[in-house]
Specification:
Distance between the termini: 27 Å
Helix content: 25-40%
Largest sheet: 7 strands, mixed
CATH superfamily of the largest domain: Response regulator
CATH topology of the largest domain: Rossmann fold
Length: about 425
């Protein structure tokens, strides 16, 4: 809520057709703008940089943050830096740390780079918001007091999808396909731990190999077992290979996966995914709880739909600005206390969003989607939203939202150091 007495001080009565109306005007900024630095890592930096979803989401966020800040004589500036590796990222961060106007960083980076950035942020007492990396590792053993996670975690996606497949689809026979990748091994363990406590569930699992004809043989073995659902815990390359093989062989296995690589939306118009169900943080077809308004604003400004990366960066910028305005401070300790408190944010998801105090993960619903109208040539329109999780979202209390992801009891995060 806005401090109405202060806001009304910026307003005055005008008359339109003889009818009195209240008109409010933003104050001029009393000081140079506070700086929010957005770091986007991409190993190739292919394509026009100004069209990266992360950048566009941040631009919409800063525009809306300045509308709110204008009522309080405050303004914000977004600086976007593109990097290819952790060395470039740390150099960029160190340069901006020296600027006293810098109040926060937003990271869109892989796990090693995010770890380095969080260490630098902790040392410099500067907030860091993770907007793209779902790693549970960053929320457990490698957590930092200064680090907040806007994007959902691996375990949140696994729990959301697993619960829906059990409760709504009544799937009993599960086949988990995973790889030796550390992230995907965690995915398998998380899903297995969730399923093993459910009566009547049978679980098979296999670690895939991409060597020679092994993958085809493994898929044939899975087909013979006739599972209700094949759950994929695979990295981007492995997932692409398996989906290609699955599509070419026309196997029609019932697939689901915890992670959807952004590029998958564009390959073959998304048709590799037509048998799968996938969790996401946001979708441009959402329309309830003012999601339609947010999607419309984004589409009107950038002439493209809003995706999960754009939503997370938009949300992070808005949260940083709101925290500064509402707490009345840019001091990192004050902002952390504010974010860890009872404050909530409107992310247009139908329920109040807040950060868990034990690992700084944002509580939020996630959405399950699957391929829809396969006659469309537009990859953006090839997916339909099945349901939010948990459901119904308007009844999602903090306790219900906390059933997605690592619980406080199971979390290994121990915030150390000052702040």
């Amino acid at each position: 809520m806005l401090p109405w007495r202060r806001l009304l001080g910026l307003c005055g009565w005008t008359f339109v057709c003889g009818i009195p109306q209240l008109a409010c005007h933003a104050r001029e900024a009393e000081s140079p703008p506070y700086k929010i630095v957005q770091i986007i890592q991409d190993t190739t930096l292919d394509g026009p940089l100004d069209q990266f979803s992360e950048r566009l989401g941040g631009l919409l966020g800063i525009e809306e943050a300045n509308v709110l800040g204008g009522f309080f004589g405050q303004s914000f500036e977004l600086v976007t830096e593109f990097v290819q590796n952790h060395n470039e990222a740390s150099t960029v961060m160190n340069r901006h740390i020296e600027d006293t106007r810098t109040i926060a960083f937003i990271a869109n980076a892989d796990t090693p780079t995010t770890e380095i950035l969080s260490e630098l942020a902790q040392q410099s007492s500067t907030l860091l918001f993770n907007c793209s990396n779902p790693s549970d590792h960053l929320r457990n053993d490698r957590c930092e007091r200064i680090l907040f996670h806007v994007t959902p975690s691996e375990s949140m996606y696994v729990h959301a999808l697993g619960r829906w497949l059990v409760e709504a689809k009544k799937h009993k026979s599960w086949y988990i396909v995973y790889s030796s990748d550390a992230v995907q091994s965690r995915c398998r363990k998380t899903l297995h731990a969730y399923l093993e406590d459910i009566e009547g569930i049978s679980i098979q699992s296999a670690r895939i190999s991409l060597e020679g004809n092994t993958l085809k043989k493994q898929l044939d073995t899975i087909v013979k077992s006739k599972p209700d659902i094949v759950f994929l815990c695979l990295n981007d390359e492995e997932l692409e290979r398996l989906l290609n093989e699955h599509s070419q062989a026309d196997l029609k296995l019932p697939l689901a996966g915890a992670f959807l690589p952004p590029d998958a939306l564009w390959k073959n118009g998304g048709r590799q995914l037509e048998e799968g169900i996938w969790p996401v943080a946001w979708n441009h077809k959402l329309f309830r709880y003012s999601a339609r308004d947010l999607n419309s604003r984004f589409k009107k400004k950038f002439e493209r739909p809003m995706d999960s990366l754009a939503w997370a960066n938009w949300a992070a910028v808005k949260m940083i600005a709101e925290a500064v305005i509402r707490s009345g401070s840019t001091d990192a300790k004050v902002l952390i206390d504010y974010l860890e408190g009872e404050q909530s944010f409107d992310g247009h998801k139908g329920t109040a969003l807040s950060f868990r105090h034990w690992n700084h993960q944002l509580r939020q619903p996630v959405y399950l989607m699957r391929a829809g109208d396969n006659s469309s040539d537009d990859a953006w329109n090839y997916f339909d939203v099945l349901t939010p999780m948990p459901y119904p979202v308007q009844s999602a209390t903090q306790e219900l939202l906390d059933t997605l992801g690592v619980s406080e009891e199971d979390c290994s995060c121990q915030f150390e150091g000052t702040l």
